[in-house]
């Protein structure tokens, strides 16, 4: 595992420029606010969060991290965007969320510092934005305790996903800023599952996330062809 910074400067700049909009539920990050209750319920259903230690990798402005803390976990969010982390910290102060903290550190560096340090690790909507996603998966596996859970979400790479998640979401419906996603960086479920197996994580569940633009409703299902989530667990012994 390479402890050097696994980040694309252009990606960091892109999200830093939007940092002040993280907690605007009707702004550029509206989709994250809309799907957050779904993914939180899914995580909490598989691994009840109350009393757990949780790490949110690539936390951005802290939308999921804050929810992990509100569900009873002692939550830490890490990211490499200074501006996004400042927004997350300000929100935590304003909301008086005491069981959450944020750090500017990479997943790989955190793994060297706190191996097997967390009951739950989440890495949502982040892998498609880094040069080496397998390295992040390995870091997440190192960070979680034996028997603990690691949750991932990302975008599939296929023509349907390109049409819906890039052309549709970014250029037709304007749900996301143009250039948010690059097709070549999207990750097929089989590829992500391979990264997980190489990191000694057992894939226990795969779920899809669908959206109806007419009703503006998201829901989880078995269709992993566009947006999908993987639940993985670290064996109690190797």
From TrEMBL:
Catalysed reactions, semicolon-separated: a 3-demethylubiquinol + S-adenosyl-L-methionine = a ubiquinol + S-adenosyl-L-homocysteine + H(+); a 3-(all-trans-polyprenyl)benzene-1,2-diol + S-adenosyl-L-methionine = a 2-methoxy-6-(all-trans-polyprenyl)phenol + S-adenosyl-L-homocysteine + H(+)
Keywords of the record: Methyltransferase, S-adenosyl-L-methionine, Transferase, Ubiquinone, Ubiquinone biosynthesis
Transmembrane residue ranges: none
Pathway noted in the entry: Cofactor biosynthesis; ubiquinone biosynthesis
Job of this protein: O-methyltransferase that catalyzes the 2 O-methylation steps in the ubiquinone biosynthetic pathway.
Family, per entry: Belongs to the methyltransferase superfamily. UbiG/COQ3 family.
Protein name: Ubiquinone biosynthesis O-methyltransferase
Organism this protein belongs to: Rhodoferax lithotrophicus
Recorded name of the encoding gene: ubiG
């Amino acid at each position: 595992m390479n402890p050097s910074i696994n980040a694309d400067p252009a990606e960091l700049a892109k999200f830093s420029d939007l940092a002040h909009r993280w907690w605007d539920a009707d702004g550029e990050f509206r989709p994250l606010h809309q799907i957050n209750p779904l993914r939180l319920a899914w995580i909490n259903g598989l691994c009840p969060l109350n009393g757990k230690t949780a790490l949110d990798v690539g936390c951005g402005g802290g939308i999921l991290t804050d929810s992990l803390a509100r569900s009873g976990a002692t939550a830490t969010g890490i990211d490499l965007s200074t501006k996004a982390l400042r927004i997350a910290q300000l929100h935590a102060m304003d909301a008086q969320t005491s069981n959450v903290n944020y750090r500017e550190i990479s997943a790989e560096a955190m793994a060297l510092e706190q191996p097997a340090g967390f009951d739950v690790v989440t890495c949502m909507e982040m892998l498609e934005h880094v040069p080496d996603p397998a390295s992040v998966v390995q870091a997440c596996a190192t960070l979680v305790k034996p028997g603990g859970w690691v949750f991932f979400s990302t975008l599939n790479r296929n023509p349907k996903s390109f049409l819906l998640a890039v052309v549709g979401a970014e250029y037709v419906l304007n749900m996301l800023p143009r250039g948010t996603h690059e097709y070549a960086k999207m990750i097929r479920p089989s590829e992500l599952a391979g990264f997980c197996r190489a990191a000694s994580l057992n894939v226990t569940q795969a779920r899809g996330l669908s959206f109806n633009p007419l009703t503006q409703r998201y829901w989880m299902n078995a269709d992993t062809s566009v947006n999908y989530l993987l639940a993985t667990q670290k064996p109690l012994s190797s």
